Amino acid sequence: MRLFDLHCDTLYECYTKKQNLLKNRLQLDLMRGLRGGEGWAQVFAVWMPDTLRGQAAYAQCLAILGFAREQERLYGGQMRLARTAEDIRDAVASRRCAALLSIEGGSALAGRLEALEQFAACGVRMITVTWNGENELGCGSGCGKPDGLTAFGKQAVRRMGEWGIIPDVSHLNQRGFWDVLENTEGPVVASHSLSAAVHPHPRNLSDEQFTALAERGGLVGLSLCGEHLGGQSLDQLERHLDHYLSLGGERAVAFGCDLDGTALPPEWEGIAVMERIYETLLRKNYEEDLIDRLFFSNSYDFFAAL
To answer: pLDDT at position 306, please?
Structure first.
């Protein structure tokens, strides 16, 4: 089984809990993720809590990005920070984790466009515009406001494209989502978002939103979050997958499991559950090529084309 996952909070959790990426007590580590041995790429998010703003947010983000570089120095035999398509190919071919960096919350910019250049230099490939609340860029899905992106937010998502950073619309409210699409030309990602048609939740995507992302050549990562699934079971996850596929999402659906960002049943054993999901889909006669696209190729092809 090959796996390319678009979102986890493990890097943040390791930093704040003084653990490491090689082996830890969290839902994901390098030893467990590499156990399959067929290829693994993982987007590690730097989460920005809604309680953190301004210079404090910027400084913490830089500290965690520095921690990621330190983890690569320590465990380079198991991981490589991947900035380019060539980096991803090399890491996967050498049976290391291709570790991509993202920021979950545009508050990390501290209201300064020039921070984008610095984050790009650190290897950041995606920025989730907001978390659940409101920040300098716009309103998240949990802030209770209908406002979309601010003037600064519109500038920021336009400038992301100039620095090779992909806007991530997971956590945005409806107006903010459409503002991102109106102010960008390239592909956009929803790194960890499920279907509102299957389970209505402010964090989930409408059919119109999913279709718009797919038509842009973007990606939508299926999350394992029980609150967003509407019931934390493999059967319920399959309902979200099937609905996205019914909308023509064969090339757009991926995984963004949100490991270490959401609670999982203990018996799922963190990242080990991905093998169970893979085997379940095989047993249910999903085409093997489709399963591989979902688990790996859709995301791999997306980043290889950038």
So the answer is: 84
Contacts of 272 (CB under 8 A, 6+ apart): 32
**Amino acid letter, 72:** E
Token look-up 């336009």 returns 158
The enclosing H or E element of 246 equals helix 234-246
Is residue 295 very low, low, confident or very high in pLDDT (cuts 50, 70, 90)?
A: very high
**pTM here?**
0.97
pLDDT (tens digit per residue) in 28-50: 999 999 997 789 999 999 999 99
Rounded Cα gap, residues 89 and 91, in angstroms: 6
Query: What is the rounded CA–CA span in Å between residue 137 and residue 156?
Result: 7
Task: Round to the nearest angstrom and report the end-to-end CA distance of the chain.
Answer: 24
Closest CA to 14 of 26, 1, 32: 26
CB 13 within 8 A of CB 28: no
Tell me the one-letter amino acid at 82.
A
- Residue 123: strand, helix, or coil: coil
Q: Return the axis-axis angle of helices 234-246 and 273-283, rounded to nearest 10°.
A: 60
Q: Binning pLDDT at 50, 70 and 90, where does residue 160 land?
A: very high
* CA gap 66, 20 in Å, rounded: 13
State the pLDDT confidence band at 195, using cuts at 50, 70 and 90: very high
